[in-house]
């Protein structure tokens, strides 16, 4: 049988020992002696890594290789903790020209290489000669085809041309071109052999410092930098009791590390809040160290919280190991018997209100009186079921809660736990109330429609609305009927008392008897600006 021909594209055999040529002798510093992380819930972290660095008097080159793959080089900082005045940083470099077949061949242009090919008859053919072309090349794409300028930018040019100019990207070159003694060989493929590893390639991304030391000795130094690829979020589990007036709440920190590095026995802190970052153009009392007291069975909280600047900092009370490409969950809080109130809310005009916010002119122009032109004059939305909690110490809470998803459960009459809904919460300070929208009521039906629309003038309109609520339960139900009114308004008539929630939102508290129906009506005059 004929042997199959296997073509191995750009497989590199290095004939001499792999040795990177350096300008001067380097000291590779490994073995972290303590690492601390502050992880932000915006997909980045601050790494503080302590190392022992031996130096000689004068100029030293120090390399650290085991760093995060997504390090931001502009944020790197190196300092001696032993004697800062005796060790000065002259240069720092982030190097990421890695050893791989493509980079090796690109750096071998003009040098002699050998391509070994396995023929079908089992024989080996070697092609040796000077490599004339790289494997990849940076070629700017034609502006008109790749990223064309808008017409107005073509007219004005200058600044706008630079703003819309396409970014050059490496492109693959089709086939190797080798100058042999017999002539040119095109598209040679097979096992590629080079005589030596080109200068400047490294096995992994690393940081290289040029340090000037006042004298020989050993320094305990701290390396710090920001890295992408690591983030955290809060996840909560709430179990509603049988009376539906209390919950047991458990909070977890879900940590996701895809930064390209692991962190062994690390001190961990979590920063909650909206920390602003600039993306380059063309990415108990006092609560100082307050820990939430566990009031139900389960793991004790492993984080202590404290205010920090305008954010909140959660410090883990013990070390933890965070492996690369790992999702880890850590206990944040446990709180039992947290008072809760079940609330029914009907907000049938929410979609219209969003339409008003996006396109107020269409709303005021009278088009709303004609069906199908932007918004609804009649809706049959659902009645939402919400759980209302207050984050207070009296309610067994009181620690600022990081934003996250709350998943809610309840046991059925047989004692089996059932999932009944989930909602997300924003960062919630102490003593603030929050609501969880966990679903829609099955036995409550609501209908909303506009019964009259009158144009008094171009800027003044009158509208009449009607909301019907039907309760198919065997107990009375209190429903909050929420209405949104745009612009400046004046209530002309209303069937029920209402509460002004804000300048454009009112709420009618209504009680619907078992198997009963309630109709809420109102007429409002709206004056547009």
What would the keywords be for this entry?
36 strands; 7% helix; disordered N terminus; 6-stranded mixed sheet; mainly beta; 8-stranded mixed sheet
Set out the fold topology.
Elements: E1 9-14, E2 26-28, E3 35-40, E4 44-55, E5 58-64, E6 77-80, E7 87-95, H1 101-106, E8 112-118, E9 124-131, E10 136-139, H2 143-146, H3 151-156, H4 159-164, E11 169-172, E12 176-179, E13 184-188, E14 190-194, E15 206-213, E16 217-228, E17 230-240, E18 246-257, E19 263-272, E20 303-308, E21 311-316, E22 320-322, E23 326-339, E24 341-346, H5 350-358, H6 360-364, E25 378-379, E26 384-390, E27 404-411, E28 417-425, E29 433-440, E30 444-455, E31 460-471, E32 477-484, E33 488-494, E34 499-502, E35 505-512, E36 516-527
Parallel strand pairs: 1-14, 2-5, 3-19, 17-27, 24-32
Antiparallel strand pairs: 3-4, 4-16, 5-15, 6-16, 7-15, 8-9, 8-14, 9-12, 10-11, 12-13, 17-18, 18-23, 19-21, 19-22, 20-21, 24-26, 25-30, 26-29, 27-28, 30-31, 31-36, 32-35, 33-36, 34-35
């Amino acid at each position: 049988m004929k042997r199959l021909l296997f073509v191995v594209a750009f497989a590199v055999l290095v004939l001499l020992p792999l040795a990177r040529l350096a300008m001067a002798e380097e000291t590779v510093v490994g073995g972290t002696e303590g690492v601390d992380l502050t992880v932000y819930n915006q997909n980045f972290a601050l790494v503080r890594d302590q190392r022992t660095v031996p130096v000689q008097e004068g100029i030293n080159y120090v390399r650290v290789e085991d760093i995060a793959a997504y390090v931001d080089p502009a944020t790197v900082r190196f300092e001696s903790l032993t004697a800062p005045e005796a060790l000065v940083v002259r240069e720092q470099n982030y190097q990421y020209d890695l050893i791989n077949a493509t980079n090796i061949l690109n750096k071998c242009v003009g040098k002699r290489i050998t391509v070994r090919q396995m023929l079908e008859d089992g024989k080996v053919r070697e092609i040796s000669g000077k490599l004339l072309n790289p494997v990849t090349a940076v070629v700017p794409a034609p502006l008109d085809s790749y990223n064309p300028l808008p017409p107005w930018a073509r007219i004005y040019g200058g600044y706008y041309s630079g703003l819309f100019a396409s970014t050059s990207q490496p492109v693959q070159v089709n086939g190797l071109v080798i100058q042999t003694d017999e002539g040119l060989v095109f598209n040679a493929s097979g096992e590629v052999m080079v005589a030596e590893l080109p200068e400047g390639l490294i096995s992994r991304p690393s940081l290289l410092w040029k340090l000037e030391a006042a004298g020989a000795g050993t320094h305990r130094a701290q390396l710090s930098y920001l890295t992408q690829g690591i983030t955290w979020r809060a996840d909560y589990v709430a179990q509603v009791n049988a009376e539906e007036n209390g919950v047991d709440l458990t909070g977890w920190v879900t940590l996701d590390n895809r930064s390209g590095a692991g962190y062994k026995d690390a001190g961990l802190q979590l920063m909650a809040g909206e920390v602003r970052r600039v993306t380059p153009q063309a990415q108990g009392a006092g609560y100082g160290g307050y820990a939430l007291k566990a009031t139900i069975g389960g793991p004790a909280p492993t984080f202590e919280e404290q205010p920090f600047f305008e954010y909140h900092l959660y410090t883990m009370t013990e070390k933890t190991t965070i492996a690369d490409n790992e999702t880890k969950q850590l206990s944040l809080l446990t709180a039992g018997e947290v008072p809760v109130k079940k609330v029914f809310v009907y907000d049938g005009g929410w979609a219209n209100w969003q339409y008003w916010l996006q396109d107020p002119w269409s709303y005021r122009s009278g088009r709303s009186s004609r069906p199908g032109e932007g918004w609804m004059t009649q809706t049959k939305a659902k009645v939402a079921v919400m759980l209302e909690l207050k984050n207070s110490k009296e309610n067994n809470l009181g620690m600022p809660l990081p934003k996250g998803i709350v998943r809610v459960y309840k046991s059925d009459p047989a004692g089996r736990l059932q999932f009944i809904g989930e909602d997300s919460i924003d960062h919630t300070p102490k003593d603030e109330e929050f609501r969880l929208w966990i679903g829609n009521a099955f036995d409550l039906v609501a209908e909303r429609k506009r019964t009259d629309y009158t144009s008094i003038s171009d800027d003044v309109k009158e509208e009449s609305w009607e909301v019907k609520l039907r309760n198919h339960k065997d107990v009375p139900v209190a429903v909050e009927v929420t209405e949104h009114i745009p612009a400046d308004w004046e209530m002309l008539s209303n069937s029920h008392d209402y509460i002004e929630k804000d300048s454009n939102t009112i709420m009618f508290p209504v009680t619907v008897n078992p198997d009963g129906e309630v109709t809420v009506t109102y007429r409002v005059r709206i004056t547009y600006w």
